[in-house]
Each structure stands twice: as C-alpha cells, then as structure tokens.
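Re: your question from the hallway

Yes, I did run it. Sequences:
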Amino acid sequence: MTIALKSTNLAKTFDIGKRLIGPPRAQVHAVHPVSLEVKTGETLGIVGESGCGKSTLARMLVGLTPPSAGTIEIEGKALNRADPAAFGRLIQYVFQDPVSSLNPRKTIQQIMEVPLRLLHGLRGRALDDRIAELFDAVNLRPEFLTRYPHEFSGGQAQRIGIARALAASPRILILDEPVSALDVSVQAQVLNLLAALKSEFNLTYLFISHDLAVVEAVSDRIAVLYFGSVVETGPAEKVFAAPRHPYTKLLADSAPVVGKPLGGAQAGELPDPLNPPPGCAFAGRCPRATDLCRAEVPDLRPVEGDQFAACHHPLDP
Amino acid sequence: MSLFLKLLFRNKLAGFGAVVLAVIVVLALLTPILPLHPPNATNTANRFLRPLSDGHLLGTDHLGRDLLSRLMWGTRLSLAVGFAAALVAGLLGAAIGVMAGYFGGRTDNVTMRGVDMLMAFPYILLALAIVAVLGPGLLNALIAVAVVNIPFFARNIRGVTVGIAHREFIDAAKLAGMGHTRILLTEVVPNIVPVVVIAMSTTIGWMILETAGLSFLGLGSQPPQADLGSMLGEARSALITAPHTSIVPGVMILLIVMSVNLLGDGIRDALDPRLRSGALARPMATTRVERAEAPVPKGDGLLRIDELETQFQVGPRIYKAVNKVSLELKPGECLGLIGESGSGKSVTALSVMGLVASPPGVITGGAVRLNGQDLIGAPYELLRSLRGRKVAYIFQDPLSTLHPLYRIGDQLIEAIRVHEPVSHAQAHKRAVKLLEDVRIPNAAARFRAYPHELSGGMRQRVGIAMALANDPDIIIADEPTTALDVTVQAQILALLSDLRRSRGLAILFITHDFGVVGQLCDRVAVMYGGRIVEAGPTADVLAAPAHPYTARLIACVPELGGGRRVMAAIPGLPPAVDDLPPGCAFAPRCEKAQAACRTGEIALQGEARKVRCLFPEVAP
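Structure:
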C-alpha cells in the first residue's frame, strides 16, 4: 500500500505577545514533533480534547498554517503550495462549523463554482453538470443552489461543505470535527454519507474528532493526541478496547455510556501550555506516574504489533 | 431593498432626515435651471437688503449679491465636496483597513502605526497643514478633509476585516485555489460593504462641517465662488448689523448636517443585523404572559409544570417552542429532559422562572407550580426572590454567564448577599466554602481569580457553586457539560451526582446525550418538536424505548466498543416549530407512520411510563 500522507517531526510553535522588533514574549508549543502516516484509502482517526493541537495539526497538513519544523509529504512529494490549483486537487479540508465555512454573501451556486473554475477550469454546461453531479452525491436538492448559507440547517450546510471539498476531486480529505456541530440524528446521516463517498471516490480520510465513539466507528487506525503529542496509535478496534496509554484509558472510561456507573472522574486538567512540565505531560494526572515520567519525555514506541504508546509504563491489555 | 426601506422608515426621525435631505439635494441639483439671480453679480447699491425684500427673497450680502442664489449654489458646492470627501476617505480608508486586517502581521503593524500617527494630530491642525502645503482652494480642502478622515475608516474597517479574515470560508477559498487579490475582492469586500456604508453615512455630516470650517477660514473656496463656509466667513464682519447674512447659511448647514446624521443613524440601524434582530430592544424583567386561565393542578410535588405553552411571536410567525408540556419534579429527584436542538427543552427550563426573553417570547398557557404556588404571571418581586434562592440555574457556557470583569469570589459574594443580609466577611467565608464544596483546588487563592484565568471545567464548577450559593431546592442544569471535554465532563457529572445526594437537591437536567442521562437521572422525558413524546424511569426508557423517535435516536448514538460500522440514521430533519404538521410531529420521518398518525391530536398516555404514539414499540 502506498502512503498518501506523511508527516515527519511536524511541529508548531505559536508566539505569544509579538513585538514589532525583537523576540516574542513567550512561546506555546501547540504541536510537539508529530510523525504520522496515512495509507491510501485508509481512514486515520485523530482524537483528543480541546487544546491538544489536533486542529493545528490538520491546518498544517493542508498548508493553512505554516509549520515551525518538520516536513509533510503528500503522495511521496513534499508539500508544495506554489501551484495552488495542483495542491487543491490533492488535498481538501472539511470545516468544523458548517455555516461559518460558507461565505454569507454568496449563493451556494457561487460557492460551488469557485473550486470547479479555478482548480479544474470548468465553464458553462460542464460546470453546471458537475455541480448537479456533486449535489446528487451528497443528497442535496438542486434548488438549494440559488439560496444563501443562512437558509440551511447545520446538517445541510455540512453537506454543502463536503460537496465543495469534493468539487476539487481531491485524493485526500481532512475532516476537522465534521459532525460535532450537528444533532445526533443528523450526525449519523453525515457519517454514513462520508463512508459512502469514500468508497465511491476512493478517498483517503484524516478524521479529527473529540468523540471517541464516532472516531472508532469510522476509522481504520486511531492516533490519540494529548497536549500536542501523539500518545498512542494503533488499529481502531484495539486502541479503546485495549488501551496501552493511561490517558487513552481515561478517555475511554470517561465517555458516558448507558448502564455504566459514573466513572473516570479523575482530578486534574491539562498542564499550562505557557509553562509545560518537564517529562510526560500526563504525569500530573496519571495514577502510574513515577519519577522517570516526571523527568523524561517518553518516546512513541511499539508496545505490541502495530500499537504504539508514548509511555514509560504502558498498561497491560 | 424594500425591507431595508421599510426598516429605515420605521425609524421616524430617519424618515424625517431622509425627506429633508432629499428636498435639499433635489433643490441643489435643480439650481442651474431655477430662475435665480446670478450668484456672483454684485450690486453695492443694494447691499445688506433684509430678507423678504423686493426681488431678493432672502436679502443680499455685503456686495449686494442675492443670498438665495448664493445659498443654493453654495449648498450645491458644499454637498458635492462633502460627499466627494466622504467617498474618497471611505474608499481609501477601507482599502488600507482591508489590507492591514487581511494580511496582518508586520503589514498590519506598520500601516496601523502610521494611521495612529495621523490620528494623533488635532484634525483641524492637520487639515490646515495639508492646505498650507497644497495651497488654498476647494479641491485642496477636499483632499485635506478626506485625508484627515482616512484613519477613522481605516481603523473601523481593519477591525471588521480581522474578524472576517479568520473565518473559515476564507480558508476554504484559499484551498479552492484563490489568490489573495481574488479573496480580497470576492470574499472579504462584499462582507465589509455594509460597514463602509454605515461609517460613511454617519460621518458625511461631519465632513461637510469640516469643509465648511476650512472655507470659513478662507482656505477652501475662493471668492467670488460661494460655498456655505465662505458665506459664513464673509458674513462674520456684519454679524451684528446684518445677522441674516450669517443665519441663512448657518441654518442651511444645520439642516444638512442634522438630516444627514438622522438618516445615517437610520441606515446604521437598518443595516446592522444585530440591531435588526432586536438587540437594542431591552427584554422585560420577566417573560410576558398571555394566559386565559391556569389549569387545575393535577397533583403536588416540589415543582409541577402543567400544560405549559411558550411561543415566540416574530412578526406574523408564531413558533410554538413549548407545546403543552407537563413535568413533575419530586424532592431529591433528578429528571432528565432530552431532545435535539430546537426541540424546546431549554425554553421549557427558562419558562419556569420567567427567563425567556420577551419580546419575542410569550407564555400563552399552562402553570408552573413551586410547592403549589403558581409562578406564571407572578409579580416580578416574587420571581426575583425565588430565582437563585429556591430554583437556581446552571448554563452551558460558564464563560458567558460569569461577568468577565469581576473576580469569581466577588460574584459569589454578590449572589449570596442578594438573598441574605449577611456581612461581607461571613459571605466571604461562605463563598470559599462553596468553592471547596465544588472541589476547586486551592479555593482561597482561586477566590481572587477572574473567569478567564480558569479552565472550562473550573469555570463550570464556579457556575455550580454560584447555583448552590443560596441552598436552592431545585437546580435546573441546561446542558452544563456540553461545552466541556469528556474527561472534565465526567468530573462535573460526578460532582453534581454527589452534591445532589449530600444536599437533597432536585435536578432538572437538560441534555442531548443519552449516555449522560443514563448515568445521572432517575427519570427521563424526551422532547420532539416542542412536545414530550415519551417519559418514564430512565432505565426502562433506555432499555425499551416505546416511542419510535426515542428508539431511533438511541440507535443513532454510536457507542464505544462497537467497532467500524454503518450507523443508524433518521432520514429528514426535525420539524420547524412554526409549521408543525397535524398529528404526530415525527410522522414524516417515521417508518411506522400510518394515516391515523397524520391527523388529530395524539395524547400522551400512560402512568409511570408515558408515550405519545398510536403504534408504540412496546406497550407502555
């Protein structure tokens, strides 16, 4: 299998309190060096809580945020936005907030035309036919084309966002919390649509979410992010069923499930990003933490088969 | 456009301004063809004629020139210069603002510091300096006024652009292959046009004044050319002997600037979407009540909601947000109210204490009884004494419910002292105790923290402490964990569960999450389209849902450990509550729906387990 998307030691540091001249007042490491691989046709789920850097990671992968360090390879070639059209045909992004990702002053037709004109040079009949085809693929009615974004519900707007991303005919789709703004009954519709589109167009997905159950339901492999670092990766069926990193276990136990008593109410929160602790970022909340954890940052290393964990004392399955 | 005009003329003063300005503009445009004296023809024999004298309606000036004619020609010139200056300043300022806001970083920094420097000069001094460099003349005065006003536009537009440049549709445009120029022109500019128009309409009067000021000083229009400012300047020496020569142009300036400003305010109000949606209308202290009569109580209980109906009346549309909802909460009980967005669950909760914003909210029927006392239509003083003391709320977003400028401790003390006349020191002690009760580590130190210094989980703990401040009997929690991360959510739920047991609290817990209900609540009620479709003990409802909607909604929720799969979905969308179908609101999306489901009223049947369905999944 070929590698569709690969990042090597990708990192992002944000400057806080920029000055006109001279160094910034402080720096926040939003993403610590992260190395990931997504195979062609695969869905990699990225899960983490707010502030863990998952959106920053995704924005770097599509070139919206320049990385501070590391490299990104798309289908074997380094990320290159010199030709925006060629780049746009390779990778696209589906945004979290479906309504704010559509320009309120444009009709849906105008929004849909942009990628088709600029990336594929379509005009006239061919353009209209392609829009009709895309709308058909995401189950939207053609009469929506003359309306404005505020006239749509969240689920419909998210379908329009997906249709726009598909208009580029990309090979890879980055989905940044595509269903978290939607109601449960609509969320399932969109997830099923995404699954159908993936097999129809042979797409590769990077699926970002804070909802463990959703990620598990759509992913082949899962990477768990905590405080800007990947703490565990592995096959979807194993990561939450048999977590090796204590944070993954905490996440899995915290998810409210009918019939399970309230659990996982462990004290502690994310460390202060302006003043990160030495060693493992999770050590402060971890029941297994030792002096080693508080002194040295653990590397991501294989625990069993293709399951990796960044932990000095990984859990037994 | 017709909506815009309607909104504009709803504001009577703006309508008046529009009419006055229109008359002045039309007259100014028609000046060349009106039968007037030539404006510059001097006749020193007839100098300083009083108004209404023969042949000179408004009299003459110190050179015997006809004032009416000079006034009309002067108005024409002043208006043209004022509008042109506003246009130039608006366009240049907007261009600078858009560039600075869109590109950000160093471009922004350097441009805006330049603009700041321009702003630091007193405007008249700057204008004088510009005219001094360029030489006197109307065109140079125009340039000076325009330049002086560029910073105002640049700063305004920059602020708006920064907000837009970080919106996701700009990112989407970049990914669709658009370059910067194209994004600026097709994505950013259409969104700032209303702001530019608003800024221009409110400053145009000011610019006419500034141009008149420069002309008054002799730096604008040169004799014998008339504009309003130079007319005033020439009349100054005869202010006492022939006051009409000053009053005539003065009144015209007053009329122009006043009508422009009134119209500008009207345009601003009509264009600003926030003002249009009624943000300026102050909501009433309690929800408006238009109720025929209270329904008879069907039993007792700590809190009983009987047949509650709350509507939003927006123009001709009536949104039936809450439609005959009945609920009952016993002491120490936790009742879950579950539904999707728009199902009316939050409005039900807010109606209890009359907290639905009016307008547009109206309670049109039903009763809410706290210990047997009906709260609907109760006087504001009574509701105020009960809010927080008997019934307290916890909201979804603690960042927006806590005041950002006060320390959390002071907000807690205020909450305590509103209802109880205790000393500040005592209240302080109780506030620290409350923070400890909600397990905020290092409570005494955190007491002095501002809301933004706390994490989301900590803020929600403060929100809970606030709700507990006066030892209420009932807590209404409206999606208190929705904005939180899953590990923090578990902490908050465990805290609520403990507090409930230790203090004997009754909780009305509003959520969209079945997992949360299953873990926390004794009983659950499911809402759809403003109605309760199913209610009963949580375990029973979740194990064997009776209403098809409940059953299918539960099936939609992915559960951890299920592996990769196709998810059950409900086709279609929830109904709009201003256009509910007859019969069952879920019928259009229901597989089991039959003809009977689409007609008439379907009752909520059953005792402990209630269901509003003709063909339930299981017998209730």
